Amino acid sequence: MIERRKRSEMCGAISSIAAKQTIEASAPCRIDMGGTVDIGAFHYPLRHMGPCTFNIALNMRTRVVLAPHTPGRVKVSSAGFDSADFDLFKAPFDHPLGLMFSAAAFFKAEGVHIRIESSSPPRSSLGGSSTAAVALIAALSMAEAMALGKKPMARRDIALLAWQLESSVAGVPCGLQDQLAAAYGGVHLWRWHAGQHPPFGREPLFRAAECRMLERNLLLAYCGVPHASKDVNSRWVKQFSAGKSRADWAEIVICTQKFVEALKNKDFKTAAGMMNREMEIRSRLTPEVFDKTGRQLAVAGAACGCGVRIAGAGGGGCVWALGKPADAARLKGEWQKLLASRKDARLLDVQIDSKGVVCTAKPFAL
Hints:
CATH architecture of the largest domain: 2-Layer Sandwich
Radius of gyration: 21 Å
Number of helices: 13
Number of domains: 2
Number of strands: 12
Order of helices and strands: HHEHEEEHEHHHEEHEHHHHEEHEE
Helix content: 40-55%
Structural class: alpha+beta
CATH topology of the largest domain: Ribosomal Protein S5, domain 2
CATH class of the largest domain: Alpha Beta
Strand content: 15-25%
């Protein structure tokens, strides 16, 4: 009886809101350049070089809705996964949806059904799980704030909490760039500040109007095969920790810096060259970052004068390209031909998101 009363005092705040209002949050996924360096194992030893990561938030949003559920339990439903329903205090964090359960546990969100929908392909290497975590934390934070009469979490704190939770349950080192793109949106250069709080510096690169123009320079393709980023990331971490690839990663830092400077100057030829050089390095370290289709897309990109890069850690999922508008338009036709021969492979619309995470609350209609 005492244990039940304690649990009741700890929990219930969020479920009381979910029973009265629809809490909905959404956040964008991303494409990137210079990723992996956002993992502390890399940017701490390379801090003298000013390690950084570039990313673009895409308006393929992951949507989270909180709905009422059985008291004491939490349920998570997400496309591509079997729905899972557990007692909040027994929910496993090593489950395929464990990151979502860890967020629910942090907020003591019992009596809640978490529904997740994504407009990007599942396991597409666009940062989907981190994006879902950002959206979920935003929703839970708003519900908690409404119940307790306080302010919801700021974007920075949402991103940091999502990263900390993922780092605690993933079993492998995790970076921060996915969560930051989801929280802030836009086109950014993120500088990694070892040993500081927060451990990042934010440099927005383009205004919203400029982002519309940049879309003409971009292509994004789904190769039809889901990725497994932690497998590739684990190999990179092991290589780097063993001292076998540090010069390579130092060059990746330089490539990213030169890429950003070229992009600022609208020098798409140099930017494309830096993308392709970075991918030469990564492909040498781990040849499987490009699957067969991805490698064909990269060859076509170089022939059209464009830069081609994996999204995230690759190994399947998405590949993106950058070039002059005329070169990107020519490459689009070549990519369409290549993708037509592979099941589920296709071009994806590229729209840059400038909003980042958004959250709303609507009372149930009577």
